[in-house]
Amino acid sequence: MTALRDWAALLCTAAMLCTALQLLLPDRGATPMMRVLLSLFFCCCLFGPLQSLVSTDWTSILPSVSVESGEESLRRSYYATVQQQADRALRQAVDTLLADTDYRVEKISARWTESDDGSIYLSGADAYLSAEQTAHTQEIARLLNSGLGLSVTVHPQLER
C-alpha cells in the first residue's frame, strides 16, 4: 500500500512541477520542445514504477501456480472423459448382453487401474441392481463376467 501511496505522491509532484515549468516558459521559441520534454518527464514518472514490476520476483507475490497443477487438472479431466465414455460403452454392452433376458442393471461403472508409467487400463466394473433384481444377483454376475470378459462386481441394490 505504501508503494501505491508513494507512486501517487510522485505523480502529484511531477504534475505540479510540469505545470509550474510550463507557466514559466516564454510564449515563443523553445516552448513546443519544452512541452514535449515535460510530457516525456511526466510519462517517465507515470510509468517508472512499472519497471520495478517487471523486475519483481512474482513467485513471492502471487500464489504458487505450478505447471504440475495444470497437468493434474488436465489428467483429471482426461480420466473423467474416459470414465464417461467407458461407462457409456459398458452400458451398451450390458444392455445388449441382457437384451434376451428379463434381467436389468440399473447402473454400471468402470474400474480403472493406473500403471507406474501413467497409462490406465480397464480392470473391471461395478454393476448395481434394482431391488427387484436382487434375487438374480448370482445369475446376472455370471452372465456379465462371462459376456464382458471383465471382473464385474454385482451389487445387489443400487446405493443412493
Description:
- By secondary structure, the chain is α+β, with helices and mostly antiparallel strands.
- The chain has 2 domains: 1-22 and 37-44; 72-155, GMP Synthetase, Chain A, domain 3 (2-Layer Sandwich).
- The protein is 56% helix and 13% strand.
- The protein has helices at 2-24, 31-54, 67-97, 137-148, and strands at 107-114, 120-128, 152-155.
- Strands 1-2-3 form a 3-stranded mixed sheet.
- Strand 2 (120-128), helix 4 (137-148) and strand 3 form a beta-alpha-beta unit.
- The longest helix has 31 residues, at 67-97.
- The radius of gyration is 36 Å and the shape is rod-shaped.
- 8% of the residues are buried.
- The model has no long low-confidence stretch (mean pLDDT 79).
DSSP helical segment count: 4
State the oligomer.
Answer: single chain
CATH topology of the largest domain: GMP Synthetase, Chain A, domain 3
Number of domain units:
2
The main β sheet shows up as: 3 strands, mixed
CATH class of the largest domain: Alpha Beta
> Approximately how much beta-strand content do the residues carry?
5-15%
Low-confidence stretches: none
- Number of strand segments: 3
User: Percent of residues in helical segments?
Assistant: 55-70%
Write the H/E string, N to C: HHHEEHE
Shape: rod-shaped
Overall mean confidence score, pLDDT: 79
Q: Which class do the helix and strand fractions yield? A: alpha+beta
Radius of gyration: 36 Å
Trace the largest sheet across and list its strands.
1-2-3
